[in-house]
Amino acid sequence: MDTGEEFGPWLARQLKLAGKTQAELADELQLTRAAVSAWITGRSTPRPTVMTDIAKALGTDVGTVHTRTTDTQAGLPVTWYHRPGYHDGGRDMGNAAAFAFDADVQVLARETCQNSLDERLTENGRPVRVRYTLHELTGEALDSFREAILWNDLFPHYSAVSEAAANQKVGRVVDAGVRDMYEKGRLVLLRVDDYNASGLIGDDYADGKFAAVVRRQLESLKSGPGAGGSYGLGKATLWATSALGLVLINSTLSVPHEGRTERRVIGRLELPWREVDGEPYAGPAWFGRPDPDSPGAMVARSWWADEETVARLHLTRESDEPGTSFLIVGAHDVASLESRSDADEESGSVEDGDEDTRDIRKMHGRLVEALGRDFWAATTGGGSRLPLLEVSVRAFQNGKEVVPEKQVDPSVEQPARTRALRAHYEGTTVDRLTEAGQVAARNVPLKLPLSGGSHGTLGTHQAVLLVTEAEGDRDGDGGKNQVHSLRGNRMTVRRAGVPRLPLGTNPFQAVLLVGEAAGETAPFAKEAEEFLRAAEPPEHDRWGQTEELTLRWSPSAYRRISALTAEVNNAVRELVARPKRSSTREGGEAVRKALTVRTRPKAKAPAGPVVPVLDTLDATVGDDGEWRITAEVSIPRGDEIVPMVPVAQLDVRSGGRPKLEWAELVAVEGCEVEDGTLRFTPGVRRAKFQGFTDVSSHPVRTTLTRLVLELRAGKGE
Fold it and tell me: How far apart are alpha carbons 295 and 302 in whole angstroms?
């Protein structure tokens, strides 16, 4: 017979849940206490006839006692535990970690898919499978779900939050979510399932993945050095996407806990401080089985649910493969309002108040778009390399499929970049682009600094740059002439354009593989992973100055990344430049000798050095929040031209202007750049240069500032 947990540990837990002692069970069974003790310690097992008596004593069926794949329902039923208010009067008006991200399903897709990649089981070589399921409930289906989550027990807490919503941001979001459910008679669930992942292993309270996700904030316990996450903030997107602040969890474990692996269930609710029936509550609450080891059996812990329970909670998993299912209750997508087209705004097709942040069809499309944009490389395989990820999205209404399951196909979503990566895996890259469809490869160096602020270089990591032509106007490729940078888990970290491209350059796409993404044999791959991981902010969407980078390496360590960017841009410009046509000088020389061109005598240049003057300036804000400037300089006629230093500053009403650092400063014509100084070609009257500020040196967000550019003589002091 198929059995779950060992009989002894299972029986001990059931007695504790039922509030029975071994002696009391022995009396009910008319056996000795020594017989029950022998079962608990594993020295013996009861006879089949005694199993029936044990089931009656525990208030369950004999099948449950035989299989032991779930707990009995005796004694301590599943309930909500709300953390009591702090004795010192402190109040938390919401989980601050949730404010690190917007209520955006695209941000949710990026963070949750990254977490699943980080928890992939690598021993079998198979990809992690992630499925997003949108499910809109109405009518009886909605009533049944609310009954399953004990909504009547939660409602007083939501009412208390709604009453104080006028003066509290989280309260206003929750109040709007509750009102939408009642006024429109609907509730949107968004479930994220992953398979071939580690699952939430570990104890309910001690260090482990379960406690890190369910019990703690700002704790990240990743499985490998190439993991994407490092702040422990990504899980907050689950609760941020719920207008009700409620997430239910069902995990199948890769490592048994309490002798079990399947249907480990828990729920967590994030609400602000509230007062219900005169009792203050701190904020979070947990949905689970009361822990008999806690004072008064008040604290709720995870429990091993039966199949019927997980079905009622919409948490049924398709197989016993390890992984976790997160169910976001009351999902909404506030950021979708920003994606409305200007045409919709101007035509008036969207009236005020008509926007629906809970449209499951729109949410389905935005999820597919985000997954194709950020994880195209993780879903790409070739040669002997298998994809790291398989991901799909589907949508239901009351159990009926309304949007078919969409498998994210990298060759459709990102055709050019996918072609480039496959060519690299299959070993078919070339040194230079000469024909359509080719992929050029080039190694670019990343010089890794020594840790602890020491001067010098640890070693040089060779990143891999891939360049290929863009695929016309196909939507998935997005902006042309961009470099997508990624490391070990193959999630796109940085997207940036390439400045100073030669005129007439054919549209291209480029991919930069750094760290473990560059290959297992790449020198200093793990060190590059560690360095770049520390250079990523919580959004994991760029590399630059961070506090961790400063503390572990040095305040100037980010310049190694700036140098890598410069190397990449130079390599791209070289690879995409059209070859110069060969020509003979004979015909042109004959014509030149046959012509006489009269010229005016040159005016006598003034003696002494002349100072160039800034003439025109064009400045825009780039995708990463940097200032991108193109400047022209007028140069008086003279024998000697003074070198100049461009200085970027923020305009302020009073006090000194904050100075911005340059991430890249490049000459376009009539000059050259040496250590941040412009040196001008003798005899030129005009020069042109471009610059890109370093976002990490910006004291405030770029869109809230104005730029001032000065040319200073000498070293700019």
Answer: 17
By C-alpha distance, which of 109, 301, 124 is closest to 195? Answer: 124
Q: Which two tokens stand for residue 534?
A: 């520390």
Contacts of 558 (CB under 8 A, 6+ apart): 535, 543, 544, 545, 549, 694, 696
Q: Which range has highest mean pLDDT (271-280, 424-433, 585-594)?
A: 424-433
On whether the CB atoms of residues 302 and 210 are closer than 8 A, the answer is yes
| Amino acid, single-letter form, for residue 641 | I
Regarding predicted confidence, which is higher, 639 or 525?
Answer: 525
Q: Is 319 exposed, middle or buried (0-12, 13-18, 19+ CB in 10 A)?
A: exposed
Q: At what angle do helices 7-18 and 33-41 cross, to 10 degrees?
A: 120
Q: Which residues contact 166 (CB under 8 A, 6 or more apart)?
A: 172
**And the tokens for 251?**
């995990």
SS (H, E, C) 157-215: HHHHHHHCHHHCHHHHHHHHHHHHHHHHCEEEEEEEEEECECCCCCCCCCCCHHHHHHC
pTM of the model: 0.72
**Residue in this structure with the two tokens 């695209």, named with its chain if needed:** 106
Paired tokens of 683:
């005899």
**By C-alpha distance, which of 467, 476, 294, 479 is closest to 375?**
476
User: Count of CB atoms within 10 A of residue 118's CB?
Assistant: 24
Cβ contacts of 394 within 8 Å, gap of 6 or more: 131, 132, 133, 134, 364, 401, 403, 404, 405, 406
Q: Which residues pair with 667 in a beta bridge?
A: 689
How many angstroms separate the CA atoms of 24 and 556, rounded? Answer: 69
Instruction: Assign 11 to helix, strand or coil.
Output: helix
Whole-number Å distance between alpha carbons of 382 and 466: 15
232 is written with which tokens?
């422990």
Tokens 């072609």: give the residue: 419
Residue type, 116: S
Tens of pLDDT, residue by residue over 533-574, are: 888 887 777 888 888 888 889 888 888 998 999 999 999 999
Task: State the Rg of the chain over Cα.
Answer: 32
Per-residue pLDDT reduced to its tens digit, 664-690: 898 888 999 988 899 998 888 899 999
| Distance from C-alpha of 9 to C-alpha of 14, rounded to nearest angstrom | 9
Token pair 């939408």 is at which residue? 180
Chain segment 93-110, per-residue pLDDT in tens: 556 555 545 668 888 998
In terms of pLDDT, which residue wins out, 330 or 296?
330
Residue 585 has pLDDT above 80, yes or no: no
Q: Is the Cβ–Cβ distance between 659 and 627 less than 8 Å? A: no
**What DSSP string describes 372-437?**
HHHSTTTT--BTTBPPSEEEEEEEEETTEEEEEEEE--HHHHSHHHHHHHHHHHHT--BSS--STT
Closest CA to 464 of 512, 510, 432: 512
The DSSP output letter for 499 is: S
Distance, in Å, from the CA atom of 237 to the CA atom of 104, rounded to the nearest integer, reads 8
pLDDT at 590 over 80: no
User: Length of the chain, please?
Assistant: 717
Which regions of 20-86 does DSSP assign to beta strands (E)? 79-84
**Phi, psi at residue 78, to the nearest 5°?**
-60, 135
Task: Give the pLDDT score at 246.
Answer: 94
Spatial neighbors of 62 by CB under 8 A, at least 6 apart, are: 51, 52, 55
575 to 234, 267, 417, 497: CA distances (angstroms): 37, 53, 16, 15
Q: Is the dihedral of CA 413, 416, 419, 424 positive or negative?
A: negative
Of the chain, the end-to-end C-alpha distance in Å amounts to 83
- SS3 percent helix, strand, coil of the chain, rounded to 5, is 30, 30, 40
Residue 536 CA to residue 548 CA, distance in Å, equals 9
Buried b (16+ CB within 10 A) or exposed e, 76-89: bebebbbbebeeee
218 pLDDT more than 70: no
C-alpha closest to that of 574 among 409, 443, 393 = 443
